[in-house]
Design goal:
Length: about 280
């Protein structure tokens, strides 16, 4: 007679490592990191705020009120920054990432924090029976704005950089042509041009695809760090420019790296009114 015993061995180290790697690669890991940073930050700030809370002193007392207040404030700031970033990501960063947009994101986030900070502190003073001293309220607001600027910049720097790379290199556009739908990456597009009220997409290999878009619609869709509306008939990709020549009346003549409709000498003229904008874009 033989007996079979069920294995009671604990999970292997590999299972623990797999679970740990899955957690690190999940969105929860980033929130966990933020929670740790905020906790450490609140502990340090509140222990340095007053003499009684300074570690090692004879009258040391753990600053529980200040610590909890800092955690609540940081959570509110985190919520404001999170939803404002989602708004900017959907409306602006998904199309292009530029300094002006980043400044507007930071400025609006700090503005919302200011609008939240003042009434919350006044209400908190009323609840605990204290009196609001506007001098300390202003100092606290300035410190909060400064620290929020640093923390938000650190939190979202990697996200903004990844969105920038995506908008420049990996972004793609869906081209609709009748019943056909084609996806093209920005890198594979030479230009868009209009002829006889039909808009064509020219690829790097010179082949063309008709589209159901107008040039105005395409100008709104594509990333303007890569594409430029040269005139009312064509939108060109920055990497497609082969040669730039100054011609009469302050105009520019642009030659592309590939031909358009078998015209090897196709040239695009930039008016003197658009010349500065084009050079700023191209450089």
């Amino acid at each position: 007679m033989s007996f079979k015993f069920m294995s009671t061995t604990p999970p292997t180290n590999n299972s623990v490592k797999i679970a740990l790697l899955a957690f690190i690669s999940s969105p929860a890991w980033r929130w966990f990191q933020k929670a740790i940073v905020l906790t450490i930050f609140s502990l340090v700030v509140n222990h340095l705020a007053t003499r009684d809370s300074f570690p090692g002193g004879e009258s040391y007392r753990f600053p529980i009120e200040g610590f909890l207040s800092s955690i609540v404030l940081c959570v509110l700031i985190g919520i404001i920054a999170h939803f404002n970033f989602k708004f900017y990501k959907k409306k602006y960063f998904s199309k292009k990432v530029e300094i002006v947009t980043i400044v507007w994101f930071m400025g609006s986030t700090l503005g919302y924090i200011t609008l939240m900070y003042i009434p919350v502190n006044i209400i908190a003073d009323k609840v605990v029976g204290g009196q609001t001293v506007y001098y300390y309220l202003l100092i606290g607001l300035l410190l909060t704005i400064l620290l929020s600027f640093v923390l938000i910049g650190l939190w979202y720097a990697q996200d903004i950089y990844n969105l920038y790379k995506l908008s420049i290199k990996d972004a793609e556009i869906t081209i609709e042509s009748g019943a056909k739908i084609t996806k093209l990456t920005y890198e594979n597009i030479l230009c868009f041009y209009s002829e006889n009220k039909i808009v064509y997409t020219v690829q790097k290999d010179g082949s063309t695809i008709t589209t159901d878009f107008t040039l105005n619609e395409l100008e709104e869709k594509v990333n303007d760090q890569l594409f430029f509306r040269a005139n009312r008939k064509i939108i060109i990709h920055k990497d497609a420019v082969d040669q730039i020549e100054k011609i009469e009346n302050g105009k520019l003549s642009i030659r592309l790296k590939a031909s358009i409709e078998n015209d090897a000498n196709a040239e695009i003229h930039i008016s003197r009114y658009k010349r500065k904008a084009f050079m700023n874009w191209f450089q």
